[in-house]
C-alpha cells in the first residue's frame, strides 16, 4: 500500500511527466478502493452481540421524581 510519502512521490512524478490530471484521478481511484476495502473489512470483522431489552419498573422520567 502507498503511504503518505508514496502518494506524494506519485503526484510529483505525474507532475514532472505532465500527467497531473491523470495522476490525481489514479490516486483518487486508489483511495476510493482503499476506503471501500477498509470499511468492508472492519464492518465484517466487528462482533455481533444480541441486545436484551430489560422491562422497566413502573413509570420513569418526570413522573417518577414526583413521588
Describe this structure in words.
The chain crosses the membrane at residues 9-37. Keywords: Membrane, Transmembrane, Transmembrane helix. With 67 residues, this protein is mainly α. It has a domain at 19-45. It is 66% helix and 0% strand. It contains 3 helices and no strands. The chain has helices spanning 4-17, 20-45, 62-65. The longest helix has 26 residues, at 20-45. The chain is rod-shaped, with a radius of gyration of 26 Å. The model has no long low-confidence stretch (mean pLDDT 84).
Counting helices, strands and paired strands, the structural category is mainly alpha
Low-confidence spans: none
The average pLDDT value, as a whole number, equals 84
- Tally of alpha and pi helices: 3
Q: What share of residues are in beta strands?
A: under 5%
Amino acid at each position: 500500500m502507498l503511504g503518505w510519502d508514496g502518494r506524494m512521490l506519485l503526484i510529483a512524478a505525474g507532475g514532472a511527466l505532465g500527467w497531473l490530471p491523470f495522476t490525481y484521478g489514479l490516486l483518487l481511484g486508489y483511495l476510493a478502493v482503499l476506503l471501500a476495502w477498509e470499511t468492508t473489512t472492519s464492518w465484517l470483522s466487528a462482533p455481533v452481540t444480541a441486545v436484551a431489552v430489560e422491562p422497566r419498573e413502573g413509570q420513569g422520567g418526570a413522573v417518577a421524581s414526583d413521588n
